[in-house]
């Protein structure tokens, strides 16, 4: 029986002096800030290119300093606090949203743990720290960040921000479950929750090839987690004015915007670490160049993969329209969660059979047979339900009340609107269009068009 858990060697972490830990923490913070500044300009440029516009081109060369100018503008704006707000929570909400967004980068590996680099004469790893439960740490800090949005909507003392905060809470609950299930598939294959160990386990094959369904589920859930289009329901300006941040301005509004883009970078880094080989060079390069995964080169491959995922965020925003809220919830609860749970059970079955030294052909036979049985049972259940529905008499459609609840409502499927009052019958309207008489004053019954009586001579 093959070993199930991967060997974890985290002894190289926790040995750095305090000043080196501080330098690495500042580097992680600077990496996120610079990436955010670049991503904002890149998003505006790419969307402008997709919409045949010019985009930012005034501040700096090619408009590259536009996001920096926007940050300075927000800093200098008047900072308002609405009268009905809970001031303490109102001020803390953007801080609660921003700080957890920076925390997850602490366990993301920028390079191999065994390839130490020299910083001011000290040998250290290209990762701030690592934990045996690093992925659980990432899930925990990502869940804390949602409190900032919920508290911002509640503390504003306004209706539309409250609706945006509630939407964000419901969206997080529905998409966090599917995200956790996609993570669990990676844990089963790697045998570890350590980020450095997960990347090491992808030395021969990336998990995007072994676990494609988990990758697709995570890609969808990470868009929902970051409240980005087409899942940007918490800040839907079409029906919520501006969403949870409607009553915010100046630096507090900038913190919400910063948290959104930092979360984009964080989830892209997590996706790169779990499914795209992390800091490893792509396949054609790693085969003919032995030094591609040594020195400072791994950081380049990591940054390139993160930027490609950020481009995916931008492409979605410029391509897909915003979904309705019921579609958002239906996708999360009725599609993503069942698919992720079934896929997790399938992965667990395959891993168990592999640990029992079954051949690949036997595993494919057992798994394929199980899937076939499930499909046959589902097909039989559908046929039985259709026959039972056909035997039942069709129920009469419920009468439609356009003023149900005291306000006008649209008709449901199967209901019809009542006839409009004071409207001519269809035959009379056809006579009018074809030149027939409309009223007694149009010349019929001896009358003339000007209302005067006709003469005989």
Describe the structure.
The chain has 15 helices and two strands. α3 runs parallel beside α10 (250-275) and α8 (212-225) runs antiparallel to α13 (325-355). The chain has helices spanning 18-50, 66-76, 87-103, 134-155, 159-190, 195-200, 207-210, 212-225, 237-240, 250-275, 283-288, 297-319, 325-355, 360-391, 426-433; strands at 117-119, 122-124. The longest helix has 33 residues, at 18-50. The termini are far apart. By secondary structure, it is mainly α.
Give the structure's gist in a few sentences.
The chain is mostly helical and 457 residues long. Helix content is 59%, strand content 1%.
Write the layout of secondary structure elements.
Layout: H1 18-50, H2 66-76, H3 87-103, E1 117-119, E2 122-124, H4 134-155, H5 159-190, H6 195-200, H7 207-210, H8 212-225, H9 237-240, H10 250-275, H11 283-288, H12 297-319, H13 325-355, H14 360-391, H15 426-433
Antiparallel strand pairs: 1-2
Helix pairs in contact: 1-10, 1-12, 2-10, 3-4, 3-10, 4-5, 5-8, 5-13, 8-10, 8-13, 10-12
Features:
457 residues; two-stranded antiparallel sheet; 59% helix; single chain; disordered C terminus; 1% strand
- Give the termini distance in whole angstroms: 119 Å
Number of separate strands: 2
Instruction: Estimate nothing, just give the exact number of structural domains.
Output: 1
Number of separate helices: 15
For the largest beta-sheet, the strand count, sense and barrel status come to: 2 strands, antiparallel
Mean pLDDT: 82
Strand content: under 5%
Radius of gyration: 31 Å
Structural class: mainly alpha
Give start-end ranges of low-pLDDT stretches: 439-457
User: Order of strands in the sheet with the most strands?
Assistant: 1-2
Question: Helical residue percent?
Answer: 55-70%
Element-by-element helix/strand order: HHHEEHHHHHHHHHHHH
Net shape:
globular
Transmembrane segments: 18-42, 88-111, 131-154, 175-194, 206-224, 253-279, 299-319, 331-351, 363-384
Subcellular location: Cell membrane; Membrane
Keywords: Cell membrane, Membrane, NAD, Oxidoreductase, Quinone, Translocase, Transmembrane, Transmembrane helix, Ubiquinone
Biased composition (Pro residues): 408-420
């Amino acid at each position: 029986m093959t070993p199930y858990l991967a060997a974890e060697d985290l002894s190289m972490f926790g040995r750095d002096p305090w000043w080196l830990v501080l330098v690495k923490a500042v580097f992680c913070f600077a990496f996120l800030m610079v990436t955010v500044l670049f991503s904002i300009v890149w998003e505006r440029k790419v969307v402008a290119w997709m919409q045949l516009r010019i985009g930012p081109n005034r501040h700096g060369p090619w408009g590259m300093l536009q996001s920096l100018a926007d940050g300075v503008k927000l800093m200098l704006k008047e900072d308002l606090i609405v009268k009905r707000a809970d001031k303490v929570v109102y001020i803390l909400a953007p801080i609660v949203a921003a700080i957890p967004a920076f925390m997850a980068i602490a366990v993301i590996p920028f390079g191999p743990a065994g390839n130490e680099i020299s910083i001011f004469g000290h040998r250290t790893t290209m990762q701030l720290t690592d934990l045996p439960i690093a992925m659980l740490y990432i899930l925990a800090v990502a869940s804390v960040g949602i409190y900032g949005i919920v508290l911002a909507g509640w503390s504003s003392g306004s209706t539309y921000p409250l609706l945006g905060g509630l939407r964000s809470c419901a969206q997080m609950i529905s998409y966090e479950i599917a995200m956790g299930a996609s993570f669990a598939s990676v844990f089963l294959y790697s045998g570890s929750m350590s980020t450095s160990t997960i990347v090491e386990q992808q030395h021969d094959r990336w998990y995007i090839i072994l676990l494609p369904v988990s990758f697709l589920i995570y890609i969808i859930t990470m868009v929902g987690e970051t409240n980005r289009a087409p899942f940007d329901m918490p800040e839907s300006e079409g029906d919520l004015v501006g969403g949870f941040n409607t009553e915010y301005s100046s630096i507090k509004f900038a913190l919400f915007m910063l948290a959104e883009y930092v979360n984009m970078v964080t989830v892209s880094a997590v996706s790169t670490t779990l499914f795209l080989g992390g800091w490893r060079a792509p396949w054609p390069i790693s085969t003919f160049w032995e030094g591609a995964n040594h020195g400072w080169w791994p950081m380049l491959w990591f940054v390139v993969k993160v930027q490609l995922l950020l481009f995916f965020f931008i492409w979605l925003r410029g391509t897909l329209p915003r979904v309705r809220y019921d579609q958002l919830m239906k996708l999360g609860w009725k599609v993503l969660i069942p698919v992720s749970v079934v896929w997790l059970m399938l992965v667990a079955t395959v891993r168990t059979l592999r640990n029992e030294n079954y051949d690949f052909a036997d595993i494919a036979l057992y798994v394929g047979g199980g899937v076939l049985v499930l499909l046959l049972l589902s097909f039989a259940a559908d046929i039985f339900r259709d026959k039972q529905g056909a035997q039942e008499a069709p129920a009469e459609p419920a009468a439609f009340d356009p003023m149900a609840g005291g306000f006008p409502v649209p008709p449901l499927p199967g209901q019809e609107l009542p006839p409009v009052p004071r409207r001519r019958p269809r035959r009379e309207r056809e006579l009018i269009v074809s030149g027939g008489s409309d009223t007694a004053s149009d010349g019929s019954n001896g009358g003339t068009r000007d209302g005067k009586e006709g003469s005989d001579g």
